Automatic annotation (TrEMBL):
Biased composition range(s): Basic residues: 58-68, 131-145, 230-241, 311-329
Ranges for region Disordered: 28-357
Signal peptide bounds: 1-19
Keywords of the record: Signal
Protein name per UniProt: Uncharacterized protein
Regions of compositional bias (Basic and acidic residues) in chain numbering: 28-57, 69-85, 93-130, 146-188, 208-229, 242-310, 330-357
UniProt source species: Mugilogobius chulae
Amino acid sequence: MCRSDVALLFALLPLLFYGKRLLSDASERAENTRLIRFNGTERRKRERERKERERERERKKRERKRQRERQEREGKKERVKEREKRERKREREKREREKRESERKRGKREKREREKEKRSEREREREREKRERKKEREKRKREKREKRERERKREGKKRESERKKGKEEKREREKERKERERKREERERKKRERKERGKRERKKRERKEREKREREEKRGKTREREEKRGKKRERKKKRERKEKERKERERERKEREEKREKDKREREREERERKERGKERERRQEREKEREREEREGKKERERKEEGKKRERKKRERKKKRERRKRERERKERERKEEREIEKREGTKRERERKMF
């Protein structure tokens, strides 16, 4: 096999593929033509059958007329009348059947129209109810929001009044504490003054007694006087000890009273704090419930938005798919066109080569 035969063989390969595709296109066109012809044939066939039926009716009519004339001529009018009567009856029954059939079809059509109207009416009713439910939901939400706002303002006012009351109580307690401090300092000052005065008086008495004793010693007083003075000192010490014990008991009693007062104030403070903690816990629970309710409502709103986004995304995806299929069709069409151009050029080239050979 020479080089030209090989080149011719390779040049004929695209022609073979092109011929195969031409055959498939031709078979497809033939099928389409056959379908078109078949449809046209069916239409013409129905038209021909209709004309045949009309001609048949005309022929039968003429035939009946001729037969009637013949029977009249033959004197068979009664039978002709009976036959015509039967024929009319059959025609009437046929017309009635056709009429009933047409009425039945019309009834079905009207029924479908009524059903369609009912469906549309139900749909409108559902839409109206949906709008009303939506309005009710919006109204309830608005009322709840307003109620929460009122509750919040009321709680704020209540807290403000409690805060002011607490400040006032604190000022009163501070005032009482300062008053107690002042009284205590006053008592201590008086006590110090009494002590100083007693000390001065004791020194003064001791000085006088010493001077008196010195004078008496100088005068030669006896030991009995000293014993009397000793007994007197003992009685004085005893009185002072009793006075000291009494003052100690008085001080302990005052300390116990102050401790009871302090414990009472502490219990009242703890009770107020406990009540405040209970109120704070209730407010916290209310805020938690409110937050959970808002989160649920926000979640529903987010889900609704997510559904809307999903629908939009699906619409965009469908649009992209349509555009992609369109681009794919256009690309295939361009490729087919290019292949045809290539095949056309190859055919022209082969034709030139064939002419050259």
